[in-house]
Structure formats: C-alpha cells, structure tokens
Amino acid sequence: MEILSYLFKVNLAIAVFYLVYRIGYRSDTFFTLRRYLLLSVLLISGIYPLLDISHWFRQNEVLNDIAVVYVQYLPDFTITAPVDVAAKPFPYEYIPLGIYAVMAGFFLIRLIFRLSKIIGFRIRCKPVEVNSLKAYRIKNQESPFSFFNWIFINPDNYKPSEINEILTHELVHVRQYHSIDILLSELMCIVCWFNPLAWMLKYEVHRNLEFLVDNQVIRSGIDSQSYQLNLLRIANNPSPILIANQFKKSPLKERIIMLNSKQTSKMKLVTYTLLLPLAFLILVAINAGSCINNNSGSEELKSDMSDDRTVYTVVDEQPTFPGGDAERTRFINETIRYPVVAQENGIQGRVVCSFTVEPNGEITNVHITNSVDPSLDRETIRIIGSMPRWNPGKLRGVAVPVLYTLPVQFRLTDGSESSSTNTYKKLDKELALPRLESESSSTNTYKTNKFVIPDGRTVYTVVDEPPTFPGGDAERTRFLNENIKYPVVAQECGIQGRVTCSFIVEPNGEITTIQITEGVDPSLDRETMRVISVMPHWNPGKRQGVAVPVLFTLPVTFRLQQ
Predict the structure, then answer these.
(1) What pLDDT is stored for residue 311 in this prediction?
(2) How would you classify the pairing of strands 458-459 and 451-452?
C-alpha cells in the first residue's frame, strides 16, 4: 500500500534526523539555527517521500539503442467475476491500517479541540491594553501564553517589572511566528503517533523555542536574575492551553541552566554545513530501493541483452502455446482465478504482463509492466508462470528469444455473467495486399516500458488507448495500397522482404522520428519511410485520459508476385 510506504519513509527520516540532532546539535547555543534545522527536519521528512527522483537512477537511452527490442502485443484476455461474493472473509490485512487511522483520527480530534479552546479564549476574554500592547485578559492565576498574534495575560497578578518581562517574552514568540513550529510538530505526531522519536522531536521543538526566546529576552536588556526569579514564581500556575507558547513552559530547570551557560564556540557552526549533504544522502538512500523496484521492468528487459543477445518480437514464426490459441484460452479459463480480496473491494482493470519465450520454449522474465493491484498482479504472474513450455519463435529458421506482452482485463460484472464466462478477443487475420503486406494492428509492436529519446521526453509504448489511423485499420490499409510503390530497382533485382519501421505518434497526432529498425534494402527502406511520412495525423494514444507520445512499429512486407 502506498500509505504504508509513505509512513515508512517518513518515520525512517525522522529517526535518522533526530538521532543526528540529538548527538550533534542539542546542547549548543545556536538557538535560531537549531530552530531552522528542526523546521527543515519536519518539512523534509513529510515532503521527500512524495518526490519522484527515479530519473536520477534511470539512464537516458537513445532511440537507436533500444529500438531493436520489439514486443508482440497480444489482445486483452478478460477475466470477469460477479460483484456479489458468496463468502467474504474478514479482511485481516486491513486491521493495522484501521488501527493507525483510528489513532491518527483521535490525535487529530484532540488537536482540533485544543485549537477550538484557544479560539474560545479569544472570544470570551476581554481585550486589554498592557504597556501599549493589545492583549486579552485571562482569569485568576492562569499562566500567560500566546498563539500567533494573540497574547493572553492577567495583568492584575504581576508587578509592572514582571509584566514587562512576560510581554517581552511573548512578543518574541509572536513576531517570530513560533506557533507555526508548534503546529507542524503537532501534525507530525498525528501522522507518526506510533513513533516515539516523533514525540521526542516535538519535545525538542518546544524546548528549543523557549531557549531561543529566553536568550533574546536577556539580550534585550532585561536582568537575567530577575527574569529567572519570575520564571520560578509562576512555575506552579495552571496552564490553560497545552499547544500555545507559554511563559512558564517546561523544562524550567533546563531553561535556567541554559540561561547561565557559556556561548558555544563559533567553530561548531561548521557542523551545520554538513546537514544539507546529509539530508541529500538520506533522501537518495531511502528512495533508491523504490526507484530500482519501479524500474525493475526495464531492467529485466535489458537483462536479456546483458550477454550480447537480442530479444525479438518481430520474427518469421511467432511463438505459440502448445495446441494453439484455443488451447491457450482453455488453459487460462481453467487456471486463472479472480482474487477474492479484489472482488470484495471492487478492484478491476487491465494488468499488462510481459515475458520472454526462450528458444527452448521456457517462459522467463515474467514481470508486470502495467500494475492495477498487487492481488491482480500476483494472479497474472502466477498463471503465466504455470504455463507449459511454448513452441519457440523462429527467425530465419532458428529458434530465438521472443518478448511477449499479455494484457489481462479483470472486470467485475453485475451478476448477469458468470465468473466462468471469460472472454478472449481473437487476433485479426493478416491483411493481404497485391504487392504489399501490412501487418494488422495486432502485430504492431509496443515496447513494454517507457524510454527516453535524445531530447529528454518520455515516449510510452504501453498505453490505455493505442494510437489509431484515421478511419481505423481498413482505412490505413487502403492508404498504403494507394500510396506505396514497389521501387523499380528492387523489382529488377528481385529484392523482397520485410521492412520494420518505427515512429512516434505525437499527442497532436503528428508522426515524427521515423526510422528503420530492421531494413532490407535502401530502396525499400526509403519507400517505407516516405509513405509513412505522408500519412495524415493519427488519433493520438492516451494514458489515463491524456494524449501522450507513443512509439508505434509497423512491419511492411514487400513480396514480388510470381
């Protein structure tokens, strides 16, 4: 679950930063620097898990380097299941998340209650002018406090000199917006309520703010001894608000010790320069694992070529399931099961799984290239991993490794269809042309992972809606029939064969970056590129409803008639 991953990263960062702070910075007297340090810890810990730094770990692949890998893009295999499930086991896996949500909700409600209490004080307390400052009169012996630009005090309880010290103290809180620090630390404890280091970090925020204010009060000219005695006099006064900035805020003993301590040597300021690289290293270290996992599909594809071999998808003889497509359909119908947890939670969608059919027919490198839910992903991988050995694909009569992509559509029905009525969409037959054979849309190739072209843009190959020629496949076939010309020089020399041309269909439908990925002869290559370049704008491919650039591969076979 994404929430668990986020919480893990946040709490890990808090633990590391707190330990570093505790060891290296807790006892110095650079209170302002320490305040900004603690604020940075709160903000970085909460924000960095949301940042995507995967591009730091992804190599920029040039189109020419990766266009040799093709993908046979099979039609959807749809697994349906009725919405009503006869037996719904208790979802025990959600118990920890439920406990977390209940406790986080409790602490959130507690914070809201305390904030509403401050607002209640603001409404009930009468404004009063104290030493030319606007404040709000509180009752009895309650300790003075402030929240943002509101100062609460009962001037009748203190001498004029004591009032001056209290107001000087609270004005520092007000002018430096210390309430922001307190609210951020409270929110951190709501999110990370189970982490004791989060609560200890909150304590450090409060502690340092009081040290900072005490230091600035003394530097303003107020007598240190008188100020300390004033702290002691009101130490036993009740605290009406626990999240506000309070004059008598604990730890009182530590505050008095810090008031009488010597200033830290400025040489220690050098240690603060180490925090930025430390934060950077923590961010990279914690995200590196997830980035590697996110790119695992791409790495698995490349692993096939790590021993200098090429994985094909456009071959003379495609790999086949033992017994053919009908037998493959029967095998999937009988073996695959719609996960119960996915049915109970209404999870459906298309899982795209890629695998390599080895020369010996073995299926390897099974991995998800388009995920929907872990339960659906695992079921798709399980069924493909349990398939028997296939009849291998062949190129020029030699068995070669071939990359296949199988989209599996999991779809919940309203109960009118039985869960056993799995549907399979048949492949369109190959189009027959007088002098030209253009592979149908089922053999147009799509890479299973996205790649980066030289200008840094990301080009997709697995999308929700593939790009289409205006009018569909039949119109595209007609366009090719009418526009392509078999080069005379190739006819005279008896040259024929299949030219594979790749191009990008841009979000506006324009065709760009046309290049030959498997050539036969310069004349045939040029003619293929020419006819593709004069095509009208296509209907662009879409991913999550947004038009995106998509890589499209069109194999065109030139064959001389007998």
Answers:
(1) 82
(2) antiparallel
